[in-house]
Specification:
- By secondary structure, the protein is α+β, with helices and mostly antiparallel strands.
- It folds into 2 domains: 4-13 and 170-302, Alpha-Beta Plaits (2-Layer Sandwich); 16-166, Alpha-Beta Plaits (2-Layer Sandwich), CATH 3.30.70.
- Helix content is 23%, strand content 31%.
- The protein is built from 6 helices and 15 strands.
- The strands form 2 sheets. Strands 1, 2, 3, 4, 5, 6, 7, 8, 9, 10, 13, 14 and 15 form a 13-stranded mixed beta sheet that branches.
- Helix 4 (181-195) runs antiparallel to helix 6 (260-275).
- The longest helix has 20 residues, at 84-103.
């Protein structure tokens, strides 16, 4: 039973996002983990690139080519003032980097489309990935899908020609305020474990130690530290510090999902798991006074 008094009466500010969902497979588990990990290692939506994450691992019986696999998600926020055409162009470019530089270079890997909901459209991977074959690439029907075969020196890399995209919810989040270092890791691991059981969500930063704010003295950096919530600045900031008593650490878990329902479910289960760990004082969330995100997810309304 969750004590609502330990949940601040606030909201997480969430955003519309564009995402794709792919399956990566490989001959062996080590290569698969490297490909999946490298392709999703740098969540960078705050600087206008892609957020990403590993949604789940798949058995041989769950993939098109009957090899072990992983479901990956890649996300781009809907930038204000930019057309969908421009957004898709940037999305395709960034996605191609992840596939070309992090997956194609791993021996015997394959990429499949894995969108689990009705697609808004699809991205043709021939231009941005297929042409890595320098004009020698070709297309075949394999596994009941249209696949591009790219001849490389350890033959060959295979990617599904059309990767679907859809709209979802990004930036759902909660902060779990901790008294001890141990609570930071124990609560975070428990929260990520239960969130990982939900179909269609990712946590691009996993346990994130650096919540940010939109206002900054250094625009070239992008979003900088959310200084009122930095425990090490509590004494220096005095009455302007927002760090509660007995709180020494404020990690954040960010959640992107294919629907508002999945994001809310993930937040609820993650908060419950965190609050059941010794050393977690209370839970809050990151927001920007409603100035940036379209959606407000009130924490207490989740319970």
């Amino acid at each position: 039973m969750v004590e609502k008094a330990r949940i601040e009466n606030t909201y997480a500010e969430a955003f519309d996002g564009l995402y794709c969902r792919v399956i990566v497979t490989a001959d062996d588990e080590e290569t698969l983990m490297e490909a999946a990990g490298d392709a999703t290692a740098t969540p960078s939506g705050v600087i206008g690139r892609l957020d990403s994450g590993i949604e789940k691992w798949l058995s041989k019986n769950e993939t098109p080519d009957k090899r072990k696999g992983a479901v990956l998600q890649f996300w781009k926020g809907l930038d204000k003032g930019k057309s969908i055409k421009d957004l898709l162009r940037r999305f395709e470019k960034e996605l191609s980097y992840r596939i070309r530089q992090d997956i194609l270079v791993k021996p015997f890997t394959t990429v499949f489309n894995a969108l689990s909901v009705k697609a808004e459209g699809s991205i043709d991977m021939m231009e941005s990935v297929g042409h890595c074959g320098d004009g020698f690439e070709w297309e075949e029907q394999l596994y009941g899908r249209s696949m591009i075969i790219i001849p490389i020196m350890v033959p060959d890399f295979i990617v599904e020609r059309y990767i679907g995209y859809a709209y979802g919810i990004s930036g759902g989040n909660f902060w779990y305020m901790c008294e001890t270092r141990k609570a930071v890791m124990d609560a975070g691991k428990r929260a990520l474990e239960v969130i990982g059981q939900i179909e269609g969500v990712i946590t691009p930063f996993n346990i994130c130690s650096a919540g940010s704010k939109p206002e900054t003295s250094f625009p070239a950096i992008g979003p900088t530290t959310n200084h009122p919530y930095c425990p090490s600045l509590k004494e220096k900031l005095g009455y302007t510090s927002k760090v509660p008593e007995n709180v020494n650490y404020i990690p954040e878990i960010v959640i992107n999902g294919i629907s508002m329902q999945t994001v809310k479910k993930a937040m609820k289960l993650g908060i419950e798991a965190a609050l059941n760990v010794d050393g977690v004082v209370k839970v809050s969330a990151g927001n920007y006074d409603g100035k940036l995100g379209r959606y407000k997810i009130y924490l207490r309304e989740l319970f």
